[in-house]
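Long-time lurker, first post.

We've been arguing in lab meeting about whether calcium ion would sit comfortably in this protein at all. Half the group thinks yes, half thinks no, and nobody has a model to point at. So I'm putting the question to the forum: if I give you the sequence and the SMILES, can you give me back a predicted structure of the complex? Inputs are below. Any interpretation is welcome too.
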Amino acid sequence: MPYFKSFGRDFSDYQKRTKDFDIGDASLNGYEHKKLFRNNGNGTFTDIANAVGADRLEDGRGVALIDFDSDGYPDILIRNYRMKAALYCNANISGNNYLNVRLAGTKSNHDAIGAKIKITSAGKTQIREVYAGSGFLSMSTLTQFFGLGKADKVDSLEVLWPSGAKQVFKDIPANRMVKITEGKNEPVIEELKPRIPREMVAAAVHEREAKKAAH
Ligand SMILES: [Ca+2]
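Top reply:
Settle the argument with this. Predicted structure of the protein with calcium ion, as tokens:
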């Protein structure tokens, strides 16, 4: 049963009762350096895990995106085998803009699973699809994150709902959370209030860079 053997150590308790899943002390998944890929916007990606201090060697099991500090930028929660969960805070030292979108279905399912969101900003188009079950033992928030670079607004935001309905919204300012309910023509557009002062985040980044430079 090769599938179950690859998760053998997750079934350690079960191994005490049967030899069917016994792979000894071996771990066949997850134990490697973390990767973090930046989208270069031209069909290629660059691994920046080492540059931002995220390339730790751990036995990973799950990863999920969530904006835990409500500053608009997605943070990364990682669950490793027999370790405490690790939270990687996105310090946004680039100062780039964003737009976050959360959908609520009415005719469609409430979480809008299967909906497609297309935004156009500064001549560039991005598409996201709302989906559930983003990873093993983990699931990212259903909020959709769009990076806008230096653009200060989204020219067009289009939602294609699972029901087949389509809605289009124009000229939405950057750095907002947009909550859209299926069938309603006026989205709720909110400015987020970061729960951690930006000065504290900047100080943490400065400390990390200083430690890096000292080695
Ligand atoms: Ca955040």
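For your lab meeting: The radius of gyration is 21 Å. The chain has three helices and 14 strands. Whichever side wins, do check it experimentally.
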